[in-house]
Hints:
The structure holds three protein chains of three kinds.
Chain A: H1 3-24, H2 28-53, H3 57-81
Helix pairs in contact in A: 1-2, 2-3
Chain B: H1 2-26, H2 33-59, H3 63-92
Chain C: H1 2-14, H2 16-30, H3 35-56, H4 61-64, H5 69-96, E1 101-107, H6 113-125, E2 129-135, E3 138-144, H7 159-172
Antiparallel strand pairs in C: 1-3, 2-3
Amino acid sequence: MNFDSFALIIVAGLSVFGLVRVLQGPTVWDRMLGFAIFSSKVIVAAVLIGMVIDRTFMIDVALIYGVLGFIGTIMIARFVERRGDV
Amino acid sequence: MAVVQEWVGNIVVLIGLLFMTLGVFGIFRFKDYFSRILITGKVDTVGFITIMIGLIIRHGFDFFTGKIILVLALYIITNPIATHAITRSAHLSGYRIKKER
Amino acid sequence: MKTYMNALWEDIVDNKEVILILSVVWLILFEEFSVGIALTGIFIAVLVVIFTDRFLLKGNYEHSYMIEIGTLIRYGLRLIIEIFIAGIAVIPNILTGKSDVEIINCETKLTDELLIDILANSITLTPGTVTVEKKGSKLKVLALNPPGIDEDPRGVIPLRLEDILLKYENKIEGKA
């Protein structure tokens, strides 16, 4: 149990709270905010896993997840803004 | 020297985790959506940047560090666009606050 | 044919900083340094820039994306410092749970489109302020702890960042 595993456990716990906001948020924008926070937590977790197992390919996973989360947030925001017409 | 570097890096990562915890605490603290996105989403970003700087300090200069800098640059470029898209969507869809000037 | 090659060479010289940045990204993604990989990276960077310039953009590449490495590094460091200052200033609001949110109309002195976009993104990135709308050089900023009614509404813009961009805009004024 070194420092990286400790940090990884804390980040994983925080991501669960982000998902709680997605489930219970009163408006749709609250849900989007929760999703954005969750995706940033996933990027940090991927980099930390790369540090723990000492491989560099996990950073590529973080990069790809960053791009996918960005596109997802933008498209959902556009969908809501135009009321169903992308 | 290596021990000092590791300790400094660990302390910076701890500060970043503190910022992130404050951000996640904030989304259950406020009642209003605009307050949430103003404070919470952004404090979360501060935590992200701090953690990445801590990992860079601890790992030293390497290709691994270059990749972390790449992730950091991508996040710094894309995150404000996502936040702006969400807030603009809320503003245009008629979620109003009382005061405007 | 000769004039075409000359135009090509001028494009490469004008965009040398973008080409350098793209080549460094290529080297980082490969995680090893050798002459062959570096040459391939430079070739592909030149190809990308020229293709975008000729076929994808309406205007000129070097007029749309003017990047100078010195200004970029100075701006990045100042941006990180500003983010930390604003992040620490916002913590008492989280702990007490009070929030006073208001939309403020303000105007920047910048005129170049790309620089206004960069400034608006920096405003969004600092905790406590989010840009909602941009029209020309007029910005609508959603601010926490806004300046009072009799104060200057430009207090929500990080003025030091604007200064760096203004200096850069004066420098490129003749070319753009």
